[in-house]
Amino acid sequence: MEDYDVIIVGGGPGGSTCATNLGKAGHRVLLLDKARFPRDKICGDGITGKSRGFIQKLGLLDEMEDNGAIYDGIEVIWPKGSKTLIKAGDGYYSYVCKRQIFDNILFQNAKKFSDVREGFSVTDVIKDNGKVVGVKATDLSDNSSHEFRAKVVVGADGANSIVATKLGLNKFDASHRISAIRAYYRNVKNVEKNLEIFFFEKTMPGYFWIFPLPDGQVNVGIGMTVKEMQKKKLSLQKIMEDEIANNPAIKERFAGAELVSDIKAWTLPTAEVFRKNYGDGFVLIGDASSLIDPMSGEGIGNAMLSANLAADVIGDALKKGDFSSGQMKNYYNLLWKKLRHEVKTNYMYQRLASSNTLLKVLEPRIAKSNHFIHSMKVNFLDSDSRWKPSIKDLFLFILSK
Ligand SMILES: Cc1cc2nc3c(=O)[nH]c(=O)nc-3n(C[C@H](O)[C@H](O)[C@H](O)COP(=O)(O)OP(=O)(O)OC[C@H]3O[C@@H](n4cnc5c(N)ncnc54)[C@H](O)[C@@H]3O)c2cc1C
């Protein structure tokens, strides 16, 4: 049995950021991950503007310059083939970086400020009088069982969070899930410094992407909401292979390209305003708290945002000696104050995009609309959500020319 101030379960972008912040503040932190780093994470590898702001805060931008490919725009290709190119402007850019590399940068940095156990799979939480006071874990190297105690436990263990599950907070809802696949190719032609997003009628709401990586590789994938995927009984892999082979806007570029990875699938728990993520002695952050943007599928930024807010509230709790649900609720309040407009509006956009008829009628307008361009900038390029969209914005979005 070992005692800490804070145990963080999961060393992805959320867990590593939280461990770094708390460790830097002088608290005793244990970071547990079932994987050994560097490890892969199925992702589009788009380290968007929101994430960039938090990477800067961690002092790790130099590592990103050395390891990521720079993008400074987004190209949207509509179902009828028209294109909208949105450039960040003002010399602004962000990165595409394989998660095997990006997560390792954050994780190795977290190691400087916390105790780390890799290859430790958390199997349960330990409770005392209804309060979370630690975790049980298996050391995967020899299958031995271990218990660790702390004043606060942070669930940062991703989409299938064991911490959220054991605390009854991991509900599956097809309306708030995206399913997606990812592959790596090399020698795709005409790859520019843009994130490319293709909307296909059959996979709305969702998109096919081509994101540029260093060394001539690209990250290619497709994702859509589980609700619509189940309704239409679609296979994402079949669609992706079919589009790469036959779509006139894509096939020439893939002639001579080589698939250099398996095609892997994973699930994205998308954000739902005011979803509970705290209790006596614990908080959930990142995917464990279902914080992925419902429109863009971007989750690294919100994982790092929630990690920052959680670290602030836990730091305060440690100062006061108060680990009650009431104190942990401060994290929930701060998080939803920051994210609720963005999540609400982007969920509305996602629902709007599920209507193919509406999309067909509005495509020419939306493609040129300042509102759409602004919204894409905010979601993929900006360093922070300075934009506070509202329901009124949705109507402006539909009507704008
Ligand atoms: C196909 C796909 C494409 C995506 N594209 C993008 C994109 O381009 N940009 C973007 O911003 N987001 C993207 N996302 C979302 C993004 O991957 C996640 O939102 C992000 O990884 C969340 O970070 P996290 O730290 O919360 O969790 P994770 O990155 O999932 O980290 C969780 C960690 O917990 C560990 N863990 C899990 N269970 C246990 C356990 N029982 N015990 C100990 N450790 C455990 C895991 O090993 C892992 O290291 C994509 C997701 C998918 C599936």
What's the helix count?
13
Low-confidence blocks of residues: none
Which ligands appear in the coordinates? flavin-adenine dinucleotide
CATH class of the largest domain: Alpha Beta
Range of helix content: 25-40%
What percent of residues are in strands? 25-35%
Helix vs. strand class: alpha+beta
Write down the domain tally: 3
- Architecture (CATH level 2) name of the largest domain: 3-Layer(bba) Sandwich
First-residue to last-residue Cα separation: 64 Å
Give the total of beta strands.
19
CATH fold name of the largest domain, please? FAD/NAD(P)-binding domain
Largest sheet: 8 strands, mixed
Give the key terms.
single chain, 401 residues, alpha+beta, FAD/NAD(P)-binding domain, D-Amino Acid Oxidase, Chain A, domain 2, 3 domains, eight-stranded mixed sheet, 38% helix, binds flavin-adenine dinucleotide
Q: How would you describe the overall organization of this protein?
A:
- This protein is an alpha+beta fold.
- It has three domains: 2-71 and 91-173 and 272-344, FAD/NAD(P)-binding domain; 174-268, D-Amino Acid Oxidase, subunit A, domain 2 (D-Amino Acid Oxidase, Chain A, domain 2, 2-Layer Sandwich); 356-399, no CATH class.
- 38% of the residues lie in helices and 27% in strands.
- The protein has 13 helices and 19 strands.
- The protein has helices spanning 13-24, 49-57, 61-67, 99-111, 162-166, 226-232, 236-246, 251-254, 300-320, 325-353, 356-368, 370-380, 391-399, and strands at 2-9, 29-33, 46-47, 69-71, 73-77, 83-87, 94-96, 115-118, 120-128, 131-139, 144-155, 177-186, 194-198, 206-212, 217-225, 258-259, 264-269, 278-279, 282-284.
- Strands 1, 2, 8, 9, 10, 11, 18 and 19 form an eight-stranded mixed beta sheet that branches. Strands 5, 6, 12, 13, 14, 15, 16 and 17 form an eight-stranded mixed beta sheet that branches.
- Strand 1 (2-9), helix 1 and strand 2 (29-33) form a beta-alpha-beta unit.
- Helix 1 packs parallel to helix 4 and helix 1 runs parallel beside helix 9.
- It starts with a strand and ends with a helix.
- The mean pLDDT is 92.
- The structure holds flavin-adenine dinucleotide.
- Flavin-adenine dinucleotide binds at residues 9-15, 32-35, 41-46, 48, 121-122, 156-158, 162, 180, 182, 221, 223, 266, 268, 286-288, 292, 297-301, 303.
